[in-house]
Amino acid sequence: MRNLIALLIRFSSLITFVVLEIICFVLIVNYNASQKDIWVNSSNLFSGTILEKKNEVKSFLDLQELNNKLQEENALLKESLLITKGYSAQIEVDTNLRYEHIPASIFSQEYRLRNNHLTINKGERDSVRVDMGVINKDGIVGIIKGVSTKYSLAISLLNTQTRISASIKSSNYFGNLYWEGRDPTTMTLESIPRYAEVEIGDTIVTSGYSTIFPRGIDVGVIESYKIKEGTSNLNIEVKLSADLTNLSTVYIINNKDKQEVKALQEENE
Amino acid sequence: MNKAVISNLWRTVVFVALQVLVFMSIKISFGSFDFIHIIVYPIIIILFPLNVPRPFLIFLSFLIGMTVDMFYSSIGVHASACVFIAYIRDYVLKYLEPHGGYSIEISPSSHNLGFQWFLPYSCFMLFVFMLFYFSVEAFSFVYIFEIIMNTISSFIFSILFILIHQFIFKTTV
Q: Among residues 15-74 of chain B, which lie with CB inside 8 Å of chain A?
């Protein structure tokens, strides 16, 4: 104790000095505008850098969650976009309100085979069912063919068994879209009558005549066309708008009235 | 109350009053050269008698600085510079100690210790005060040019007043 007091006496000047200087600086920073600004800015410069670094790390860790959120948001936006489109076209209102988008990720894809498939990370528990359409932000991608609890398997557009009802946007002539099994960027649209007015660069969209895809989703643009030998139909080469060799985020389209439509069709066959 | 206390109290009151009533309002500028501030009251700290306990001197300097700050409306800026030179005064005195040592009670003035001794002592103390004061006032070494210009030009004018004071008045205690 005596030592402590001796120490305090020995350093009394230093202690007084330090304490008073600290008081001075606290006062300076608190009561003087310009010094306060400089203090706040400099300390922000310091703490800001650290906080920014922390944020970078945090946002990196949260990327997955953020991604999911964005996907969901996108799905909502896409739905409302379809609805708005429907309003502008009046007739499509009913049809497009029926469709719901389920965001999903592709985690296995192939495009070099003749019959290519996609594996998707959403399954039965996310209300994915067989025969739902798969699209991404650019256009159609495939159709669900098999569903397990957590995953689903889709046949890609790049599959020789794929048949999709598609139409020319400007003239509404429709035909079957299929893949010839070679080039992963083009598909063929068949059974368009030869008198249809076709121009290179025209947009091809889904026709909406099946229960899989709603009307008016982009498929691609016309690259070339020729008359199929021995028929009165055109064969149109369509350049796909979705890049099927590089897929990550997709939306699965759920047609809420599918069962009803199917039941009706089967009844009358 | 003995003579030393009255003398120092009187000096404190006079110089603080001079500082805040006269020198504060003197603005010397040559065109855009606006760096001259006359600050003479650190002479109070410079001339405190040697037998004043150091922590007490530091605390008194703080009070003097705060008083001046109230008039300059720059709370803490003068006080911090005062506290700083009060703290280093002991080291400066030790460094400049004459051969015979100091006689314990006297004030380190020009009259008591000779002009040749007083000149480097007061110059050093005042210069450190100015440098510290203007650094704290700018508060960032981004303004290093302004700090140095202010320090040098203000120092030259202020030291003149202090030296003139020492020629006119014979400070004993």
A: 54-55, 58-59, 62, 65, 74
